[in-house]
Design brief:
It is a single chain. This protein has 513 residues and is of the alpha/beta class. The chain folds into 2 domains: 259 residues, 3-Layer(aba) Sandwich (Aldehyde Dehydrogenase, Chain A, domain 1), CATH 3.40.605.10; 193 residues, Aldehyde Dehydrogenase, Chain A, domain 2 (3-Layer(aba) Sandwich). 43% of the residues lie in helices and 18% in strands. The protein is built from 17 helices and 18 strands. Helix 15 links the parallel strand 15 and strand 16. Helix 3 crosses helix 7 and helix 5 runs parallel beside helix 6. The radius of gyration is 26 Å and the shape is globular. The chain starts with a helix and ends with a helix. The structure holds nicotinamide-adenine-dinucleotide. Nicotinamide-adenine-dinucleotide binds next to helix 8 and helix 9.
Length: 513
């Protein structure tokens, strides 16, 4: 179990004392479970320097040796699953099921995926050129680790969306300095113990605990920033990174639409809507945050989601099977959820289930279903990040797509229909980084698929070849093996050569279109 002593020991492993300390709360009980140092810019700079010194040795070990470390880390994680899951549950207030499946199991899977796929995604790529000037030359792309990657994470998935993003970075041969959320720092700190016991060389993984200032300090020193968090902070990160032209990717918020067509399996759609809007208390970047249902099945869908939401148990997460919905992790989020409901009701929406904060001493918000909603309401336009399901009736599929795309976000989305061809056609009309047909969110587990947002939901992707290549410098190499003493277009210039080159130009590009 993640005790205060464990946290203190992990903090010490960072090796850097600090004056200021940040209290960490269990949001389901309101109790303080530990403290972490609020690290300043000097400490961050020192950590990055240590990581930079350790990185070449780690890169030189090669893919096979790194995969072995990951395999041992995976075994440690599975052996210590109870301790890790409890740490996550304590600092987030989420259910044990969410911690075990979406964090522990996901990370165990990630160790295997990146360990195996890194050499495939990053092997030298031979390139054939269309250009006549490349005749006889060998061209290739060599993926070289960038050096030190800074990973800045959010509080809703402290393991998956913080430590998880470092696995690909380390698989590529980089060192990583993590800046977990100050709300949920312990899970990432615990992984330091995991990685050390798995044989990760000293210095390759560092954890800088602290608030936003600590994250901002990290950006200045690292070679790449992987940020997951809100749109507001993402924009600050991008502008901070611009000062040093540090490349970055941003995985930001969402307002994911669900389109339920008249020929959908209503029972499955209702189960999916309730699960993917209420799982982890709705605190999933790609949670279903708004539903558009075609008129003929609207009443049936609404009555099913109301009945299923009423049946959910909420409370302090304990052992497996105890509750379906846990706490609101971040205190200001509860105010924001309340404000979205208040705004919607003032503008004519009707709350069919829930709609209020739950009883203390922990911080809860009741699983909620709202109807008679429209796009004048914050509940339909801004990220709510709570256990709230607003459902809107639409005339037809055209209106559903138009409403789904009427958003500044574009993370995930879903279309529900028994007609698969229609589902695929409508999926491609939705402006989002990903779209599921007859499911939602689960595409995240297919790490072969890129995951990222369009519009204000982000820049860049995680997962897939692109999700590891971003942690590398794509070094283009041209080799001239058999060559003349000089190329035709080198000095000295002559009329003969100029004419010859012009002839090549006309021959190659001067044909009639
Ligand atoms: P946040 O933006 O408040 O904080 C994220 C991290 O940024 C924290 O570690 C914080 O300390 C740090 N930070 C704050 N100010 C900073 C600054 N100026 N410079 C550098 N770092 C700074 O986000 P949050 O509230 O922790 O997380 C919830 C948000 O994350 C939601 O919007 C959710 O949708 C989003 N999210 C997105 C994804 C995705 O994959 N797209 C995944 C999980 C969460």
């Amino acid at each position: 179990m993640a005790t205060l002593e464990t946290h203190a020991a992990s903090t010490k492993q960072n090796g850097h004392a600090a004056d200021g300390r940040i209290p960490v709360e269990n949001p389901a009980t309101g109790q303080t479970i530990g403290h972490v140092p609020d690290m300043g810019a000097d400490e961050v700079a020192r950590m990055v320097a240590e990581a930079r010194a350790a990185q070449p040795g780690w890169a030189a070990m090669g893919y096979e040796a790194r995969e072995k470390v990951f395999r041992r880390a995976r075994k440690w994680l599975v052996d210590n699953r109870d301790r890790v899951a409890r740490t996550i549950v304590e600092e987030t207030g989420k259910t044990r099921e969410d911690a075990m499946l979406a964090e522990v199991m996901f990370i165990a899977d990630s160790f295997g995926y990146w360990g195996k796929s890194a050499p495939k995604h990053l092997k030298d790529e031979k390139v054939k050129s269309h250009s006549p000037f490349m005749f006889g030359k060998k061209l290739m792309i060599r993926y070289k680790p960038r050096g030190v990657i800074g990973v800045i994470g959010p509080w809703n998935y402290p393991l998956t969306n913080c430590f998880g993003d470092g696995i690909a970075a380390m698989a590529a041969g980089n060192a990583v300095v993590f800046k977990p959320s100050e709300i949920t720092p312990f899970s990432t700190m615990l992984m330091q113990e995991c990685m050390r016991e798995a044989g990760l060389p000293d210095g390759v993984m560092q954890v800088a605990t602290g608030r936003g200032q600590t994250g901002a300090a990290l950006i200045e020193h690292v070679d790449y920033v992987m940020f997951t968090g809100s749109v507001v902070t993402g924009k600050k990160v991008a502008s901070e990174a611009a000062k040093t032209l540090t490349p970055h990717s941003l995985e930001l918020g969402g307002k994911d639409p669900m389109i339920v067509l008249r020929d959908a399996d209503v029972e499955r759609a209702a189960n999916g809507a309730v699960f993917w809007s209420m799982a982890n208390g709705g605190q999933i970047c790609q949670a279903i945050e708004r539903v558009y249902v075609e008129e003929p099945i609207y009443d049936e869908f609404v009555s099913k989601v109301v009945e299923k939401t009423r049946a959910l148990r909420q409370g302090v997460p304990g052992e497996a099977g105890a509750v379906e919905v846990g706490a609101v992790t971040f205190a200001p989020q509860a105010d924001l959820i309340e404000e979205h409901i208040r705004d919607a009701v003032e503008k004519g929406a009707k709350v069919l289930v829930g709609g209020h904060r739950g009883p203390g001493p922990g911080r809860f918000f009741e699983p909620t279903v709202v109807v008679d909603v429209d796009h004048t309401m914050k509940l339909m336009t801004d990220e709510t990040f709570g256990p709230v399901l607003p459902v809107m009736k639409v005339r037809d599929e055209d209106e559903a797509v138009e409403k789904a795309n009427d958003s500044r976000y574009g993370l995930n989305s879903s279309v529900w229909t028994k007609d698969i061809a229609k589902g695929e056609r409508i999926a491609s009309m939705v402006e989002a980084g990903s779209t599921c047909v007859n499911d939602a969110v689960s595409n995240y587990a297919a790490q072969e698929l890129p995951f990222g947002g369009v519009k204000e939901s982000g820049i860049g992707v995680r997962h897939s070849a692109a999700g590891i290549r971003k942690y590398c410098h794509a070094h283009a190499i041209l080799v001239t093996r058999f060559a003349m003493k000089r190329e035709l277009y080198w000095f000295p210039f002559s009329k003969r050569n100029a004419k010859l080159l012009e002839r090549v130009l006309v021959l190659m590009y001067g044909r009639k279109p």
